[in-house]
Amino acid sequence: MLQQALDFREESEAVFALLDGLDDQDWGRKTQFKEWTINDIVAHLHMGDYAANLSLQDTNAFLDLVKEFTVGRKQYGRLAFTHVWLDGLRDRALLHRWRTFSLEMAERFAAADPKKRVQWFGPDMSVRSSITARLMETWAHSQAIYDLLGQTRTDTGRIKNVVVMGVNTFGWTFANRKLAVPTDIPYLRLSAPSGEIWEWNRSDQENRIEGSAVEFCQVVTQVRNIADTSLGVRGGTATRWMAIAQCFAGPPEEPPAPGSRFRQV
Description:
Blueprint (H helix, E strand, L loop, with lengths): L2 H17 L18 H20 L1 H18 L1 H9 L4 H21 L5 E2 L6 E2 H23 L10 H9 L1 H6 L11 E5 L5 E4 L7 E5 H8 L11 E3 L1 H9 L21
Parallel strand pairs: 3-5
Antiparallel strand pairs: 1-2, 3-4, 5-6
Helix pairs in contact: 1-5, 1-6, 2-3, 2-4, 2-5, 2-6, 3-4, 7-9
């Protein structure tokens, strides 16, 4: 069984538990993420899951969806097309559709060959990377909901998957901006939610990032500005990376402005 698929399932279930108690009026509340509503975020997650599942099961059907999405995005805009694609499905009905689908999808990915290559909107990737990316998106986008509701997430060792994506996309962050990729990737020393220490790369006192693994994940997924964390960053390369870190595919995105993303009370 592919562990990342099981972690995706557990992360999705944690988000479902958060959303299941919402009142009807909560679905239209705007978050700090581009003023997307809670309904918008669930819609986005569901379409992403649907696309990833299609890439696993039927390459030709996935490529047809890419064409449909490309045309729809130009005609309506990305988010608006997502709602067109959902044909009016929203709020609690959408929540339950998303949950049912994510559970079924997790089972399919758990049984798949982790090394199998699957198509995506950008470069293709392995099955393991595909489901890890879905976990990352679920974790990252749900942060805006936790913030809006004034809730503090209880993180677990599942976020190690997000840390690994952050580390693996060090070069991508620079290359995606047409910048030279530094050869001196920083040393990471991060505290896991359990208190365990996670380390990556060669120990270096002058080029390092240390602190909370959760906050590192928040920076590489761009749900927090580095200035709004307590991460210790030392050295030119580490500083440059944390200023523009981006572990997700797509064109370069700017991190949120300092102070613009926070847990509301």
